[in-house]
Amino acid sequence: MVALTAFVAYSTWATLVNRDYYARPYLSPFYSPCITSHCGVGGRAATWHLVSWWPFSPAILIVVFPLAFRLTCYYYRKAYYRSFWLSPPACAVPDRHSTYTGESRFPLILQNAHRYFFYLALPLPVILAWEAVKAFHFPSGWGIGLGSAILVVNAVLLGLYTASCHSCRHLCGGNLRAFSKGPVRYWLWRRVTALNLRHMQLAWVSLGFVALADLYVRLVAAGAFPDPHIVF
């Protein structure tokens, strides 16, 4: 409960504050891809200048996709149902609510859209990986910095969390009557199944690391300390 509350509070603030999210060549994962024309300093952080009319934080346009994916995740449902709603507080403990309607009514019926949110969130690890590659290109040339390594690890962890999702497992092996008829899909299904067994751990590690990555970029952008890096 404490960890979830802390992340919700920090991520909400980081998304709305609309500053200190770009320290060239580092772009906060909360703001990536930055698609508005006023991203960063003079628009230099923008990946695509697709939106020019948006006056608020550019993170709001992006964070809605991973947020919907995480909120409807099977593991996170269990975590926040028990932590915040006490429904139920633990196994073999009666539910505190007198009536139970499951996820058949609004707003919980939206939980059933998890697989569709998965497709919307699927490109994000690829985009973050591209931003991680760009994080090696400093103003004075190509090199490597602590921020570069952090953004690479963040992209990998978010990619593993996304790939370990039950929806990804269904995408690889669902609606296949015989694995012998789809050897490639069977190979993918076996790998994703192995990741799926670590879905809970990946959910927590990726959640904490994305906040750490944002905090690092934010502190460097605010001038709290210089980013240690080497240019080749």
Structure, described:
With 232 residues, the protein is mostly helical. Helices cover 53% and strands 6% of the residues. The strands form two sheets. It has a three-stranded antiparallel sheet. A two-stranded antiparallel sheet has the order 1-2. The chain is globular and about 60 Å long.
Kindly report the spatial arrangement of strands forming the biggest sheet.
3-4-5
Beta-strand level of the residues, as a percent range? 5-15%
Count of individual helical segments = 9
**Number of domain units:** 1
Give the fraction of residues assigned to helices: 40-55%
Contiguous low-pLDDT stretches (5 residues minimum) are none
Shape: globular
Q: Which H/E pattern describes the elements?
A: HEEHHHHEEHHHHE
Label the structural class.
Answer: mainly alpha
Largest sheet: 3 strands, antiparallel
- Seen as an oligomer or otherwise, the chain set is single chain
User: From the alpha-carbon coordinates, what is the Rg to the nearest angstrom?
Assistant: 20 Å
